Amino acid sequence: MAFISLGEALQQLVNKSRLKNGLRAAAIEEVWEKIMGKTVAKYTSKIQIINKTLFITTPVGALKNELHFQKELIKQRLNEEFGEAVVTDIVIQ
Question: Is residue 9 one of the residues assigned to a domain?
């Protein structure tokens, strides 16, 4: 019988269950500030991942425009941070 650490066992449980998407959805706000910086995070009122689509909500028109031009870069950075393709599309509201 092979022994594994508690951390590895929990990781395997998360990977095999539906918890994985919920945990990513909860972690996205923390990752968002790390990737985009404090200023962008400050003016982003809501950010969430639903079915591999990242929804970004901001009341600032200039920020919406800037985020629109950076969609591919944002997608690349988020996928690198999570270690797999968690975002395939981005919607800016």
Answer: no
Question: Is position 55 within any domain?
Answer: yes
Structural domain including 35 reads 18-92
Q: CA-to-CA distance for 52 and 72, rounded, in angstroms?
A: 14
Count of helix runs (H) and strand runs (E) in the chain = 5, 3
Q: Is residue 85 in a domain?
A: yes
- pTM of the entire structure? 0.74
Query: What Å distances lie between residue 81 and 12, 26, 34, 64, 93, CA to CA?
Result: 19, 14, 10, 22, 23
Distance CA 77, CA 11 (A): 22
The domain that contains 62 carries what CATH number? 3.30.300
Looking at residue 63, its amino acid is L
Question: What are the tens digits of pLDDT across the range 18-53?
Answer: 555 566 666 787 788 888 999 998 999 888 888 889
